[in-house]
Design a protein that fits this description.
Length: about 230
Amino acid sequence: MSTTPPNKPRRRIAGEAKPGAVAKTPKGPKAPKVAKAPTIPKPAAGLPQAPRRSDSPTVPKAAGVRSLMTSSWALVALTVAALVLAVSGGIAAVAHFRADDAGTTREDASDAAAVAAETIFTYQWNQLKQHLSESKELMTPRFGKKFEDISPALSALAPQRRVQVKAVVRNAATIECGSTCADDKAKVLVFIDQARVADGADKPTMFGNRIEMTMIKRDGDWLVDDVKAL
């Protein structure tokens, strides 16, 4: 009796499954886990919700009107300030010119009074007619007539004693007139010295006098309208 030798097991090819075993499906790469979105808690009842974000902020109407009014008032204020400065500058300029003009007027009046005072109070006994004529040229017609009326007394006394008088003005200045000032009228205070010689004396007698002269401007010239001794 012959025996059949047992079958030798066959060698498996690399990767071949064992007999009777279920072949496993090869595993592919695992899919990445997706992170869960965070849960936003709902606001509690009764609490105000935050305003939704907008791409461009909305300016309230009241704020826009207030901003416009503020800008308008600022512009008006600047305009008013500019006008005030312009008017102030104009007033200052006018006041400056008026002050200069008033200063020139006072100076001219005082200079004319000084010249007239020396002419009127300087005379000598043998030239009285010339003295009267030259003096009246520096006077208004009204005061010239008054001066002419008193000249006969001088003409009667001066030749008797051969009187000669030399007058020199030491100072002359206009008197403050306040609200009564005028461009064509001024009062001038004059300090005048007189050297008098009479009866052929060798040395003169000195007299210091203070007078007030009223000056009036006529046709561009300052003329004497009155003289008062002080």
